[in-house]
């Protein structure tokens, strides 16, 4: 199917993205556009190109063709360390927490773009640095409280159950106060109750940010997304609302083909 048009009013978009790894075509002319306050899902069978597309959005992979746009303007050199300054936060598969830092310190890392004190103030422990530290800690505690895990603030991540670690990782992303949140398989390793709570949380975020959700769990995607892009063999085979995508023959064929290969 043809790619959906990229709207200049989109919060975030990729347009005509192509990625090759040697002779392997990972993505071929992929486009999607994320509206303000929308949850945009990316789904597809194994090997469809979902992770590669997510890595393009995060700046981990530079596309061979196409462009990334932020608020309708091309992003010339997207890099992971620049995301926070652009108002973009991300979570990765797994949790990616720093084992040697407490829960609250991990989340403070996510809030670091709000730090006002410079390197010298921090190095010499000047009063402004102390105020900064308190403000970041308060911001981190607020994010932990929003996710119901503030009671674990002083604990090390490795001592916590996996679903709690996942919430801490999400709190770290929210502490950045982004207007775009990129989620890579946030439901992996979660039970049905935790997954339902995750869905409610994602929907609650739309008043202040857009969300791109790459996920395997179809029930979650169908329940929380406003729009869904479906990939198969690196190409867009469907794009639309959950109801439109659910009944699309190309989507049914893609997933039936995956089941037949197992």
| CATH architecture descriptor of the largest domain | 3-Layer(aba) Sandwich
Summed up, the helix count is 9
- Name the overall outline: globular
What is the CATH T-level topology of the largest domain?
A: Rossmann fold
The string of secondary-structure elements, in order, is EEEHEEEHHHHEHEHEEHH
Number of domains: 2
Specify the biggest β-sheet. 6 strands, mixed
Radius of gyration: 19 Å
| Assembly level | single chain
- Measured as a percent range, the helix fraction is 25-40%
N-to-C terminal Cα separation, in Å? 26 Å
Backbone structural class: alpha/beta
Tell me the fraction of residues in β-strands, as a range.
15-25%
**Unreliable segments (pLDDT under 50, ≥5 consecutive)?**
116-126
The average pLDDT value, as a whole number, equals 86
CATH superfamily of the largest domain: P-loop containing nucleotide triphosphate hydrolases
Side by side, the strands of the main sheet go 6-7-8-3-9-10
Can you describe this structure?
With 262 residues, the protein is of the alpha/beta class. The chain has 2 domains: 1-87 and 178-262, 3-Layer(aba) Sandwich (Rossmann fold), CATH 3.40.50; 99-177, no CATH class. It contains 9 helices and 10 strands. The strands form 2 sheets. A 6-stranded mixed sheet has the order 6-7-8-3-9-10, sandwiched between helices. The protein has a 4-stranded antiparallel sheet with strand order 2-1-4-5, covered by helices on one side. A hairpin with a 2-residue loop joins strand 1 and strand 2. Helix 4 (127-146) packs across helix 5. It is globular. It starts with 11 loop residues before the first strand and ends with a helix.
